[in-house]
Specification:
Blueprint (H helix, E strand, L loop, with lengths): L2 H20 L16 H15 L9 E4 L2 H20 L2 H12 L5 H16 L5 E4 H11 L11 E2 L2 H19 L7 H10 L4 H13 L1 H11 L2 H12 L9 H9 L6 H13 L3 H15 L3 H12 L16 H5 L3 H50 L2 E2 L1 H13 L4 H9 L2
Parallel strand pairs: 1-2, 3-4
Helix pairs in contact: 2-3, 3-5, 6-18, 7-9, 7-17, 8-17, 11-17, 12-15, 12-17, 13-14, 13-17, 14-15
């Protein structure tokens, strides 16, 4: 047997062992696994084991939740399919199946329970609950709207209605930006993003932000608002960064800063100019424009061409700065200047990358916050709630010490 097959078999055996532990009804389990690795299989077997573990358990006592309608439908279909097979198979086949599921011989009571479980599930009133998390939250909130902080009669947005409301919020934001001047924050933020993204991409980005609004709200709350988020980001990237609306000026200043090694680098440039090599002469041209510039703006204009003398397109030091003949003519001072200038130019690019990231993030968060504000106002105006509101309301309800026990009691009495 090959080493690869032995390793694969060992992994399979370990996974099967973990699955058996996960569907043991005597354990409280947190199951985490990638798509297609058998989560639904484990959940179905856990449900089946629950009914055999407690013969008094009623189908209406079960609450099975998942994220999507398709997953809930698949779980219900596979569960019922297993019960149909149990009800139709022979006693010998059933005993064999239960032996595998229970990892022991079934009792007569478990055999009878398995045979009759399909009828019990189909006839259960109220029915067994296999649904989505959002659907369950909607059912609970509709029973306890005041306790959960939801206005009675609020309409729950479906996917199509939410997309329409998002589009309205986006349109309102873009129209508002059209009334602002270039010096106002929302305008420069929009320009910053518009220079980098097409309108359709912008819409997709902000739509995704709304769909993850709860995570964003938590982030803002923990950091003390947008200013706190940006302050933390700036500390992580580079404390020298200013607010994004001043970034262009700061970027120009960084690229236009004079080199402290100019005297030695001028000698390097002259050595390149005297060389017969076309490669060396190109290096001389790159250095001459920047070193000869008489103002920060001019140096900034030539910076990128100048930087190509020291760094590759991937922003790594060039392996061959000069031809061998020219290189051998460099003095120690000239060699040191080249090394230090390479480090300085690389540091400028790192600062520019940090600044671009900071500016784009600030612009994105400012714009996204505007879109979210319009979206939330539209929901309030039309007495509408989305799936995130449902989950937030359910969490609020179940964490409310004053009403929690009564709500759970009422849910148990359904």
């Amino acid at each position: 047997m090959s080493t690869v097959k032995m390793r694969r078999d060992a992994v399979t055996l370990e996974a099967t062992k973990a699955q058996r532990l996960a569907y043991d009804p005597s354990r409280s389990v947190w199951l985490s696994a990638s798509a297609g690795t058998g989560k639904t299989y484990v959940l179905i077997r856990r449900l089946l084991r629950l009914f055999l573990h407690d013969l008094t358990l009623k189908p209406s006592d079960i609450l099975a939740l998942t994220f999507t309608k398709a997953a809930a439908r698949e779980m219900e279909e596979r569960f019922v399919k297993a019960l149909v097979e149990w009800s139709e198979c022979s006693d010998e086949e059933l005993r064999h199946n239960l032996d595998i599921l229970l990892e022991r011989a079934p009792t007569q009571g478990e055999m009878q329970r398995a045979k009759m479980l399909l009828t019990a599930v189909l006839d259960s009133e109220p029915p067994m609950t296999i649904t989505t998390l959002h659907a369950f939250a909607g059912q609970v909130i509709s029973r306890f709207p005041l306790e959960s902080g939801i206005y009675p009669g609020s309409q729950i947005l479906d996917d199509e209605e939410q997309r329409a409301l998002l589009e309205q919020a986006l349109q309102s934001t873009f129209e508002l930006l059209g009334t602002r001047t270039e010096t106002e924050e929302p305008h420069w933020a929009f320009v910053c993003l518009a220079e980098r993204m097409a309108e359709t991409t912008l819409r997709d980005v902000f739509t995704d932000f709304i769909h993850n609004a709860r995570r964003s709200k938590n982030m803002f709350a923990e950091a003390g608002g947008l200013a706190g988020v940006l302050a933390a980001l700036k500390d992580d990237l580079d404390p020298r960064l200013e607010n994004a609306e001043h970034w262009r000026a700061q970027k120009q200043q960084a690229m236009g800063e004079a080199t402290p090694h100019k005297e030695a680098l001028v000698l390097v440039q002259e050595a390149f100019s005297k060389s017969a090599s076309s490669t060396d002469k190109k290096q001389a041209a790159k250095l001459q424009k920047f070193l000869g510039a008489n103002s920060p703006d001019n140096r900034a204009f030539y910076f990128e061409e100048y930087a190509r003398a020291f760094l590759t397109a991937a922003k790594e030091p060039v392996k061959r700065f000069a031809t061998k003949k020219v290189y051998e003519g460099f003095t120690p001072e000239m060699l040191e200047a080249v090394e230090l200038e390479t480090e300085r130019v690389l540091a400028v690019y790192q600062f520019l990358a940090a600044g671009d990231t900071f500016a784009e993030t600030q612009a994105y968060l400012m714009m996204a916050s505007m879109v979210l504000s319009h979206y939330e106002n539209l929901k309030k105006t039309h007495a509408q709630i989305d799936h995130d509101d449902l989950i937030d309301a359910l969490v609020t309800l179940l964490n409310d010490e004053e009403n929690r026990d009564w709500v759970l009691y009422r849910l148990d009495q359904r």
